[in-house]
Amino acid sequence: MANAASGMAVHDECKLKFLELKAKRIHRFIVFKIEEKQKQVIVEKLAENVPKSRIFFIAWSPDTSRIRSKMIYASSKDRFKRELDGIQVELQATDPTEMGLDVFKSRAN
């Protein structure tokens, strides 16, 4: 069972949906979520039928999060990211201003 030191397990659906995004280009974005009770990363939301050109990995961890949640997130992020081969741009954000359209445009080039 995964814990805060080793990170959360990654549900198979996460890898499947990421492969669909990468290979078939049928998703515009995927929101993954750490489900603490299930001790794994799951798919929370999809946006379909929109072609994409770059794959961004956005690590969202607001400053207002609980310390325990931040620890679980930090230990799970790298393990999860290794499961998703093909990420082209990574952003770490703690505030919405760090994910503005101007940030995406500058990082996409």
UniProtKB/TrEMBL annotation:
Supply the PROSITE patterns for this chain: ADF_H (PS51263)
Alphabetically sorted, this entry's keywords are: Actin-binding
Any one GO cellular component localisation term in the record: actin cytoskeleton
Keyword Lipid biosynthesis in record: no
Query: What's any GO biological process attached to this entry?
Result: actin filament depolymerization
Which positions fall inside the ADF-H domain?
A: 1-109
Indicate yes or no for the key word tRNA-binding.
no
Record's InterPro entries?
ADF-H, ADF-H/Gelsolin-like_dom_sf, ADF/Cofilin
* An example Gene Ontology molecular-function term: actin binding
Where would one find the signal peptide in this protein?
none
Q: Which SMART domains match?
A: ADF
In the record, the note on similarity to other proteins reads:
Belongs to the actin-binding proteins ADF family.
Q: State what protein this is by name.
A: Actin depolymerizing factor 3
Which taxonomic lineage is given here? Eukaryota, Viridiplantae, Streptophyta, Embryophyta, Tracheophyta
